[in-house]
Amino acid sequence: MKQYIMEPGADAIRLVDAEVPKLGPKDVKVQLKAASLNYRDFLMRQYAKEAIVPFSDGAGVVVEVGAEVQDFQVGDRVLGLFFPNWIDGEITREIHGVARGGGSVDGMLSEFVLGHEQSFVAVPEHLDFAEAATLPCAGLTAWHALFEHARPAKKGDTILIQGTGGVSIFALQLAVAFGLKTIVLSSSDEKLARVKEMGATHTINYRDTPDWDQEVWELTGKRGVDLVVEVGGAGTFERSMKSVKYHGVISLIGVLTGTAAEVNPFMIVGKSLQVFGIYVGSKAMQHRFHAALEEHSLTPVVDSVFEFEDADSAYVHQKSGKHFGNVVVRGMDA
Questions:
Q1: Most buried among 183, 220, 235, 315, using CB within 10 Å?
Q2: Where does 181-256 show beta strands of DSSP type E?
């Protein structure tokens, strides 16, 4: 079979021939139809210590099942879980150590993917493969950030969303569907116009308004937002703390602006903030997320689709920052 390999220090991922692993009694063999790219994949490419198949996210068709498989049959449409072993409950060190496309665990950018049946879930019926491939990381992360922690967002809340990448656009779609008010940040007026069309309540161009936390404060009647979907990291965290209300919530997800910065934690104490670290989610969360997608007929936003043979160009496109939503690579025979 054909699969991509990400090697330490390499300038590009490499397409190679590989043997198909032997199918275990509880394993399923999935023919990849689409895989999606996340910012995490850039980090893995930068810090990879050994050769590994990249991309945490993908969807396809079951083409073979082990003798003891009960959940799936040949022909089923499935997607792979980001954390194959996180079924429910809290994340643990052991769960954290087994994530697709990172560390020592192969990802999804392969002609065929094998794994234990528990590490896959059914694709929502109303979605195609490209759309489904965006759900395991970007989609579930947004769902977790809004609804799965101890202080979930509720109808009428105002949330601040940073940017228009995969997680952020999912957060906007979910917020609109669940009756939340939104303030969306971007450096592009064109992208801000698009989120307005999607139902965003307010938008701020952070290049034109570098002190965007002050604008958020004014837009909320000097109260602050109820929740921040924080994808920026160290470079935006202080302004997020200023933007959120007293006893508000920050769902801390990303490190788009880096990790090295001095952050004064006093506002967390002084404003009684709750900060939740969001690292994708469990299989149980994935099921609840899919139910919400089906109930509200939500369709992921796919920015662009690259051919399997041109997968490395997907990195280039996403790195450019021109994308809106999710970047997808088609399966070899899709």
A1: 183
A2: 181-186, 202-205, 225-230, 244-252
Q: Does residue 117 lie within any of the structural domains?
A: yes
Q: Each residue of 63-108: pLDDT tens digit? A: 999 999 999 999 999 999 999 999 999 999 999 999 999 867 899 9
- How far apart (Å, rounded) are the C-alpha atoms in residues 156 and 106? 42
- Residue 194 has a pLDDT of 98
3-state class (DSSP) for residue 89: coil
Are the C-beta atoms of 175 and 182 separated by less than 8 Å?
A: yes
Asked whether residue 159 is assigned to any structural domain, the reply reads: yes
Q: Domain containing 170: what range? A: 150-277
- Asked if pLDDT for residue 257 goes beyond 50, the answer is no
pLDDT of 48: 75
Q: Is there a contact between 181 and 158 (Cβ–Cβ < 8 Å)?
A: yes
Backbone angles phi, psi at 224, to 5 degrees: 100, 160
- Are residues 237 and 182 both part of a single domain? yes
What is the rounded CA–CA span in Å between residue 156 and residue 322?
A: 31
Calculated CA dihedral for residues 36, 133, 177, 214, nearest 10 degrees: -20
For position 115, which CATH number holds? 3.90.180.10
Residue 159 sits in a domain whose CATH number is 3.40.50.720
Contact of 51 with 5, CB cutoff 8 Å: yes
Provide DSSP, 279-322: ----HHHHHHHHHHHHHHT----EEEEE-GGGTHHHHHHHHHT-
Confidence at 234, pLDDT banded by 50, 70, 90: confident
CA angle 100, 304, 253 (to 5 degrees): 45
Q: How many domains does the chain have?
A: 2
Q: Is residue 293 part of a domain?
A: no
Instruction: Give the pLDDT mean for 38-57.
Output: 87
- Do 171 and 273 reside in the same domain of the chain? yes
pLDDT of residue 261: 59
